[in-house]
Amino acid sequence: MTSPAPRRLQGRVGVVTGAGRGLGRDVAHALAAEGMGLLLLSRTSSELRSLADELAAYDVPLLPAAVDVTDASAIDRVVAHAEQQLGPIDLLVNNAGRIETTERPFWEADREELWAVVETNLRGPMLLCHALLPAMVLRGRGHVVNVTSRARAATRTGTYTGYAVSKRALSVLTEALAAPLAGTGVVVVDLLPGLVRTPMTAGMAVWQDVPDDGWTPASVSTAVVVDVALGRYDDRAGELLDAPELARG
Ligand SMILES: NC(=O)c1ccc[n+]([C@@H]2O[C@H](COP(=O)([O-])OP(=O)(O)OC[C@H]3O[C@@H](n4cnc5c(N)ncnc54)[C@H](OP(=O)(O)O)[C@@H]3O)[C@@H](O)[C@H]2O)c1
Predict the structure, then answer these.
(1) Catalytic site residue 163?
(2) Percent of the chain having pLDDT more than 90?
(3) What is the CATH number of the domain that holds 153?
(4) From the candidates 58, 160, 163, 233, which is the catalytic residue?
(5) How much distance in Å is there from the Cα of 232 to the middle of ligand 1?
(6) Is the CB of 20 under 6 A from ligand 1?
(7) Coil, strand or helix: which one is 128?
(8) Which residue has the CA at smallest separation from atom 31 of ligand 1?
(9) Tens digits of residue pLDDT in 11-25
(10) Residue 214 in domain
(11) Where in the sequence is the domain holding 169, given as residue range(s)?
């Protein structure tokens, strides 16, 4: 009888934002399957509960918490609680994201929604980095994955301006953190997932006619996240990891 493969992230702890559905849910599965304990964040409690039920099969410590990533004091509280309950956090996956619900040019778009998109996609990752980096730097170890986008939907339609602005800014955050973090043992990278079929993309008019083979499997991105956590891309701090390109080799 062959013994099961060793779990490569056993005993380590990660945070996945936007874990309730879409890509974040797949990332949570992939990390838990490797033995990682997880703080799971998004706003919809029912999705977090059903995810935690699924992940129970991996027998890893879990902390699902319904938190808005733009809420600074809620982030501080949940991070402190997670460090107490789960232990030091090794990995942050800034995956939670939002896009405009209609394809309208900037000047016709709802300005409150535009700003809410920017807040979710930029303030959220900034708050989480701000909360988690001090302990990572102190321990001399940690990984951050910022899930970004080339915002092709925005270029193609001339819309989704808040999304395009926020994702470009998120990449600037990654680049800006790389130099001050050099030599600390903490590595921040960007991840480009390709075009993944999720509740987000399913709701976008621009992607309605994409053929079945036009989508990128989520597994392409989850493999990169696991590899980042394992240190495989430590020499690419501040860079953008294009998951479909890496999968093609
Ligand atoms: N799908 C793609 O093709 C693609 C391509 C490039 C980049 N991306 C990026 O990949 C990430 C995941 O995308 P997806 O397609 O999986 O999106 P999705 O299906 O819409 O899922 C987004 C997740 O983020 C959570 N979220 C949204 N706002 C939040 C907030 N304020 N606080 C906490 N959680 C929040 C959502 O849960 P609640 O609403 O319950 O909070 C949900 O769990 C996003 O950053 C997206 O921009 C996706």
Answers:
(1) yes
(2) 98
(3) 3.40.50.720
(4) 163
(5) 25
(6) yes
(7) helix
(8) 68
(9) 999 999 999 999 999
(10) yes
(11) 13-248
